[in-house]
């Protein structure tokens, strides 16, 4: 009778633990977000839009609402929106404390290129033909991570491509797509902050496989640093195999990914480290082959 009660108590304890899992322990250092600046005067970025440069500060903004307007608004204030987005992205991982006295992240907007205007008209290719044109922006930001003594311990460069508009001509029928300045700049902030956060997070606390079951793996990072459909590349601990996976489920602290294509996934075991292949990285369009078992 005593044994049965003890077993029942153990079962109830297990249920309670599952219902209320322990809080995830912070496994990384304290990281604070420092200053972000631009290589050139903020107003010069408006010239890329094909309009005259206009003065802009915290109180006087350019009157038109292009992508560049919102870039200038953030630039003259040292990118507070981007810094906030990066801080939120790092905090969401649950692996880093954010306080003074630890590491400090600083950023530097080094390049902005692209027309920022509507896509040119797609030419008519005649019956049965189609053509597509697009207009894009490229934004590059350098970032560094310094320790309490001001020494650089890590740094990298992130470049993001943003499609501003497109024009499609199919058999004489045309369709045009475009997005306003607030939406485009929102996309930039989200993608740039997520990319920088991933690089910093994975540097200090590497992304790794914590479970492998057939062609499915479980990773030690989850949303929002990993999103559904994202491609991750895992490498065996001894470097003998590399396999690509696509994220199929992402929770707060971990995610699941399914093998994509053909890879030596049998060697991808717990402890294998992984990286994210960004969607605008040419490597994301690499060839994938599937092995077909013979009868």
Overall CATH class of the largest domain = Alpha Beta
CATH topology (level 3) name of the largest domain = Rossmann fold
Q: How many beta-strand runs?
A: 11
Largest sheet: 6 strands, antiparallel
Please tally the helical runs, counting DSSP H or I stretches of 4 or more residues.
Answer: 4
Give the strand order, joined by hyphens, for the main sheet: 6-7-10-9-8-11
The CATH architecture of the largest domain comes to 3-Layer(aba) Sandwich
The N- and C-terminal alpha carbons lie at a distance of: 56 Å
How large is the share of residues in beta strands? Answer: 25-35%
Structure overview:
With 295 residues, this protein is an alpha+beta fold. It folds into 2 domains: 31-204, Rossmann fold (3-Layer(aba) Sandwich), CATH 3.40.50; 209-285, M1 Pyruvate Kinase, Domain 3. Helices cover 22% and strands 32% of the residues. It contains 4 helices and 11 strands; from the N terminus they run H-E-H-H-E-E-E-E-H-E-E-E-E-E-E. It has helices spanning 2-19, 67-75, 80-92, 181-204; strands at 31-38, 103-114, 130-146, 152-170, 173-178, 209-213, 216-219, 231-235, 242-250, 255-259, 273-277. Strands 6-7-10-9-8-11 form a 6-stranded antiparallel beta sheet, with no helix packed on it. A 5-stranded mixed beta sheet has the order 1-2-3-4-5. A hairpin with a 5-residue loop joins strand 3 (130-146) and strand 4. It is flat. The N and C termini lie far apart (56 Å). Residues 1-25 and 48-64 have low confidence and may be disordered.
């Amino acid at each position: 009778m005593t044994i049965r009660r003890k077993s029942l108590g153990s079962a109830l304890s297990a249920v309670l633990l599952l219902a209320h899992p322990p809080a995830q322990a912070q496994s990384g250092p304290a990281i604070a977000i420092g200053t972000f600046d631009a290589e050139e005067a903020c107003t010069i970025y408006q010239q890329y839009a094909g309009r005259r440069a206009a003065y802009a500060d915290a109180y006087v903004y350019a009157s038109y609402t292009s992508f560049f307007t919102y870039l200038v608004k953030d630039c003259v204030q040292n990118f507070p929106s981007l810094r906030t987005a990066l801080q939120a992205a790092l905090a969401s991982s649950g692996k880093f404390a954010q306080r003074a006295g630890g590491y400090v992240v600083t950023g530097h907007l080094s390049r902005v290129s692209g027309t920022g205007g509507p896509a040119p008209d797609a030419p008519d290719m005649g019956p049965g033909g189609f053509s597509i044109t697009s207009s894009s922006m490229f934004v590059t930001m350098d970032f560094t991570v310094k320790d309490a003594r001001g020494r650089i311990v890590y740094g990298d460069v992130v470049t993001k491509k943003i499609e501003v508009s497109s024009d499609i001509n199919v058999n004489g029928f045309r369709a045009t797509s475009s997005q306003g300045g607030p939406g485009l700049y929102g996309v930039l902030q989200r993608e740039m902050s997520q990319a920088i956060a991933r690089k910093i997070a994975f540097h200090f606390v590497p992304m790794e496989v914590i479970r492998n079951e057939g062609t499915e793996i479980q990773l030690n990072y989850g949303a929002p640093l990993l999103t559904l459909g994202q491609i991750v590349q895992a490498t065996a601990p001894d470097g003998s195999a590399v396999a690509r996976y696509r994220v199929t489920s992402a929770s707060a602290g971990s995610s699941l990914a399914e093998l994509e294509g053909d890879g030596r996934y049998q060697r991808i075991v717990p402890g294998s480290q992984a990286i994210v292949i960004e969607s605008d990285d040419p490597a994301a369009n690499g060839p994938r082959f599937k092995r077909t078992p013979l009868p």
